[in-house]
Amino acid sequence: MILKCGYYTPNGHNMQPWRLTVIEKNEDIQRIKEATELAASRNKVHFYGWENPKILVLVSNDERNEDGCQYASTAAENIMLAAISFGVGSVWINPLMKLRKISPVKEVLDDFGVPDNHVIWATIALGYPVSDGVMLQKNDKVIHFVR
């Protein structure tokens, strides 16, 4: 159901240009985690949020699609909102967006069947939270009414 919520995200002309690559096996999750950590370290890309996911969902889109980021973002948001409604925690982690074509990440993603011309706009880690966490302070001044 969580993945279906991503699948039913809005998109122009019902093109459905995204791809959801779901990684379930712990050894595959560890493989992409280690490759990403290594490539991130070498390329000065932030690496966090990979502590202990039960599932990873890679939301990608053809790099030629000028609206790919928007479509992937709405799919990612739908997945994350659905997850919380089922008591599943989620975090959006993003180093793969910059590391898709960099070794050893490229080889792992190729093995997982992610098309070479796809940008991974979002990586969503899903799992069960060990605590409720802390609600971050929100800036209510970002809402402006024109009266």
Keywords:
single chain, 147 residues, alpha+beta, 37% helix, 4-stranded antiparallel β-sheet, 4 strands
Structural account:
The protein is built from 5 helices and 4 strands; from the N terminus they run H-E-H-E-H-E-H-H-E. The protein is 37% helix and 20% strand. It is globular, with a radius of gyration of 16 Å. It has helices at residues 2-7, 26-43, 68-85, 95-99, 105-111, and strands at 18-23, 55-62, 89-93, 118-127. The chain is α+β, with helices and mostly antiparallel strands and 147 residues long. The mean pLDDT is 91. Strands 1-2-4-3 form a 4-stranded antiparallel beta sheet.
Summarize the structure.
The protein is an alpha+beta fold and 147 residues long. It contains five helices and four strands; from the N terminus they run αβαβαβααβ. Strands 1-2-4-3 form a four-stranded antiparallel beta sheet.
